[in-house]
Amino acid sequence: MCPYFIQPVPCFHIPASLHRMGHSAAVCNYKASIELTKDWNGIEQVVLRSPQGASARVSLHGGQVISWRNDKGEELLFTSSKAILKSPKAMRGGISICFPQFANCGSTELHGFARNRIWTIEDNPPPLPPNNNPTGKSFIDLLLKPTEEDLKCWPHGFEFRLRVCLASDGNLVLISRIRNINGKAFSFSFAYHTHLSVSDISEVRIEGLETLDYLDNLCQRERFTEQADAITFESEVDRVYVRSPQCVAVLDHEKKRTYVMRKQGLPDTVVWNPWEKKSKTMTDFGDEEYKQMVCVDGAAIEKNISLKPGEEWTGSIELVAVPSSFCTDELHPRLNFF
Ligand SMILES: O=P(O)(O)OC[C@H]1O[C@@H](O)[C@H](O)[C@@H](O)[C@@H]1O
């Protein structure tokens, strides 16, 4: 059970038909708003706003969250200054969806095809179960179905529903539902590939993963046990912490900011920083940008998720950014979305 809590508040959803008309809607009880804009390629983006001024921007390209700002307008997600915006591939940064595979463990492209496809806005998705229904948020529902090309490399019929929610206090919640609409069972792995913006990676510490086993992607996924009290960074890190707890905290000492990630339905946590040498090999990433980001992904990797025909899986994360002074017992009663 996660010690962190967020108070639930009432809910508001703006119909997609309104977005398509290009309206910016002021939400009566929350004064949250949602806008539809287009990116450099003419692909739609949805901007969610909270009454206090926080915002989140979601691209229909990949269902990728490309920006999350707090009420001071500070960007909380990292985006590379070298991100290739016209690429059919996901932009380097934000939160992208890895499905149906993580990394190169499968028959599709790296981290799966979902992050490279165009999603659609769904007006009336099937309701979420009551215990997983966001309240007090403005939100958008996206849908992905496989293309003919996708079915050639991954021959499984599915519907992938993604809800992105911005709470009135600026917390960000992503809920993924994947349904098997195939005649046969299939299995997949999954991750919310989450690039957090940090002031200096050397000042960052991740709490909640100590003593856990991890698969080290830098050593052919060999299994090790974490010995450190907290994860700190002095070189490249690329690990899958298995059976990790629901909550992980990322402390940025220099910025005096703490991110808390709470996950549900996602047993593993990926931690990635490419460090200096690898950064220089990545064309869409600045040589020094590894200092300003850390990826912490809620994920299901060690064991694939299996779905029989007609079954549905749900995996969610909630992200909170608070001043580090809150990272004491004081923080615990603040977080409780799920
Ligand atoms: O460049 P990509 O495809 O976004 O992947 C970046 C990194 O993503 C991480 O999640 C993986 O653990 C790394 O192995 C990988 O290098």
TrEMBL record:
The record's EC number reads: 5.1.3.15
Q: Which residues form a coiled coil?
A: none
Question: What keywords tag this UniProt record?
Answer: Isomerase
Query: What SUPFAM superfamilies does its record include?
Result: Galactose mutarotase-like
User: Do you know which InterPro entries this protein is assigned to?
Assistant: Aldose_1/G6P_1-epimerase (IPR008183), G6P_1-epimerase (IPR025532), Gal_mutarotase_sf_dom (IPR011013), GH-type_carb-bd (IPR014718)
Pfam families the record matches: Aldose_epim
Give a yes or no for keyword Translocase in this entry: no
Q: In its keyword annotation, does this UniProt entry include Ubl conjugation?
A: no
Q: Which reaction does it catalyse?
A: alpha-D-glucose 6-phosphate = beta-D-glucose 6-phosphate
EC category: isomerase
A molecular-function term among this protein's GO annotations:
glucose-6-phosphate 1-epimerase activity
Family assignment? Belongs to the glucose-6-phosphate 1-epimerase family.
The protein depicted here goes by the name glucose-6-phosphate 1-epimerase
**Species lineage, top-down?**
Eukaryota, Viridiplantae, Streptophyta, Embryophyta, Tracheophyta
